[in-house]
Amino acid sequence: EVLPRLTRGEAWIGIASTEPQGGSDVAGERTEARLVDGRWLLTGEKNMVTGVSIALALPYGGGFVTVTRTGPVEAKHRSITTMLFMVKRNGTVNTGFETRDYEEWGRRGIPTSYLRLNNAPVDPDFVLGEVNGGFKVVMEGFDVARILIGAAAIGAARWMLEQSREWIRGRVVFGKPISSYQSVSFKYAELSARLEAARLMVYKAAWLADRFYRGEGSVSIMDVANASAMAKMLTVELAVETGLEAVKWFGGVSYFKETPVMRALLGVLSYYVGAEGTQNIMRLIVARSLLGREVE
Ligand SMILES: Cc1cc2nc3c(=O)[nH]c(=O)nc-3n(C[C@H](O)[C@H](O)[C@H](O)COP(=O)(O)OP(=O)(O)OC[C@H]3O[C@@H](n4cnc5c(N)ncnc54)[C@H](O)[C@@H]3O)c2cc1C
Q1: pLDDT class for 16, splitting at 50, 70, 90?
Q2: Structural domains present in the chain
Q3: How far apart are CA 101 and CA 115, in angstroms?
Q4: Mean pLDDT of the chain
Q5: Cα angle vertex 56, ends 51, 57, to 5°?
Q6: How far is the CA of 250 from the centre of ligand 1 (A)?
Q7: Quick one: pLDDT at residue 296?
Q8: What is the three-class DSSP state of 59?
Q9: Nearest CA-CA partner of 55 in 30, 106, 89, 83
Q10: Disulfide check for 157: which of 52, 81, 209, 242 has CB 3.0–4.6 Å away?
Q11: Contacts of 59 by beta carbon, 8 Å cutoff, 6+ apart
């Protein structure tokens, strides 16, 4: 019902995992789901959910892959169930929820919201995977989504380097273009080289994901998880560093809206502080895969 509409741009699907007490510890999320008279009822709070007002504005509507608790909190990841909570379905707004948009420093194209759930109903057909088996579902989703974040960060870094190239070659200070000073040109060269390397890491993660979903037995989901965490870690930090250099190269004008690089930097900072796991969580995933589960 939803996926064909999603592909036609008529429906929205996002994710509602993060809660006010924290987003990194997905196995510790508290939103409760109870099965009452054949329907799941969700109660709790979700925070920083991207796209709620888009789903509400679309004629069909949309929903959120929601991380819920269907057993004791002590069972951690073994009592997590993932379900698609529809805020609006077939033009009818669901009951049992309230929402409000946050105002963002950087991004303008896509809103992010707070979501309070109070006996919000979910059809049993909208449970994704097994009851109490949802942790794997949501983790796998993050593994793939991180590749897309990596690609977006690469695009932002490339764009900032392109903008900067014109500027540093044209900006004459002390009688010479600033690109002739090695403190500028060497950094430009280094960031360009790191962009190429980070791009290859994104391609590698995407290639592994393709092979995993084609059922090639030699690639496991852990291979995808590790590569996508590396890709997000490297690309996002490169994009932020590129933005910080670019605004310095542009000098004072970078602080004003006539010059667009600051906006790009603010945009990629959203991936630096959040979005499919923080940069420390990327390190945690990679460290655990290399050194073992004892890494915390
Ligand atoms: C623009 C934007 C859009 C978002 N959209 C969504 C969305 O659509 N859906 C959704 O569910 N969430 C969304 N988020 C939330 C985002 O995914 C979370 O911010 C992220 O998962 C981190 O959670 P937190 O902010 O609560 O930080 P916390 O989990 O409270 O972590 C705080 C800090 O502690 C560090 N930390 C935590 N544990 C460890 C550890 N073991 N070792 C070392 N350091 C650690 C973290 O790295 C972080 O720096 C969005 C965030 C942003 C900024």
Answers
A1: very high
A2: 3-131 (2.40.110.10), 135-291 (1.20.140.10)
A3: 9
A4: 96
A5: 95
A6: 31
A7: 83
A8: coil
A9: 89
A10: 242
A11: 10, 91
Predicted pLDDT of residue 108 = 84
- Tell me the per-residue pLDDT of 67-114, one tens digit each, with 9 for 90 and over: 999 999 999 999 999 999 999 999 999 999 999 999 998 888 899 999
Instruction: Identify the residue whose C-alpha is closest to ligand 1 atom 16.
Output: 274
Q: Which residues are CB-contacts of 231 (< 8 A; sequence separation ≥ 6)?
A: 146, 147, 150, 198, 201, 202, 204, 205
Q: Which of 83, 81, 119, 84 is nearest to 98 (CA)?
A: 119
- 8 — phi, psi (to 5°)? -90, 0
Ligand 1 pocket test, candidate residues 278, 281, 295, most atoms within 8 A of CB: 278
Please, is 134 exposed, middle or buried when counting C-beta atoms within 10 Å of its C-beta (0-12, 13-18, 19+)?
buried
Residues 149/129, Cβ–Cβ less than 8 Å: no
Residue 202, exposed/middle/buried by CB under 10 A (0-12, 13-18, 19+)?
buried
pLDDT band for position 129 (50/70/90)?
very high
Residues with CB under 6 A from ligand 1: 14-18, 22-24, 48-50, 112, 270, 273-275, 277-278, 280-281, 284, 296
pLDDT tens-digit readout, 214-269: 999 899 999 999 999 999 999 999 999 999 999 999 999 999 999 999 999 999 99
Assigned token pair, 155: 């695009």
Gyration radius (Cα) of the chain, Å: 22
